[in-house]
Amino acid sequence: MRAYATIHELFYHHLDELYAAENQIIYAISSVLPQISQPAYQDGLILYRAEALRHRDLLHEVFEALELHPADHGCSAVRSMLGELNQMLRCNKPSLIRDLALLSTFHQLCQYVLGQYQWLAQWAERANQLPIAQICTTIQQQKTYAAHILTKLCDQGLHLGLPEQLQAQTLGGFGQLPNQARRRNQKR
């Protein structure tokens, strides 16, 4: 991480990273949507993408208020998380398992940017940049709701369909892994 001469440079760096993160999330959701098998999961990701678009526009307003411009680069933390998403897309997994893994990755991305918005809101408040603090707080509240929706979708998938698919993939029934040794008193 490079050294920053002022707290303002550090703030700009985080603001810029968030702008890049929102762009990467928007692009990733758009590219993944056709591969999601469950309509409810598609709907959840469409809503998340719409929020990310709104948040990116709000961040652009912050840049304008500060008379700055976002740099043209990606966020390294998001790039790393999206690498996991790309690996999952290349794996030959049952559709529900793949869907849940993709949702989980987007949930992690949501949590990451949520923490960054919290930091930006606190900084803006301390720097007496109250309009910027309000924008970041509003986005933070909306991201909290988005994270809640993604959590509920993952939870529904785990309760409704995943155990049956896992059971079909394991030897000896659900809960017993293929390499797990049988107990001595268990018949062969």
What global shape is seen?
Answer: elongated
What name is given to the CATH topology?
Answer: Ferritin
H/E element sequence: HHHHHH
- The number of E-state strands comes to 0
* CATH C-level: Mainly Alpha
- Any idea how many domains? 1
User: Beta-sheet strand percentage?
Assistant: under 5%
Based on CA atoms alone, the radius of gyration comes out at 21 Å
CATH architectural name: Up-down Bundle
Could you state the CATH homologous superfamily?
Ferritin, core subunit, four-helix bundle
Largest sheet: none
Helix content percent band: over 70%
Could you report the average pLDDT, rounded to the nearest whole number?
Answer: 82
Summary, kept brief:
The protein is mostly helical and about 190 residues long. About 75% of the residues lie in helices and about 0% in strands. The longest helix is centred in the middle third of the chain and has 32 residues.
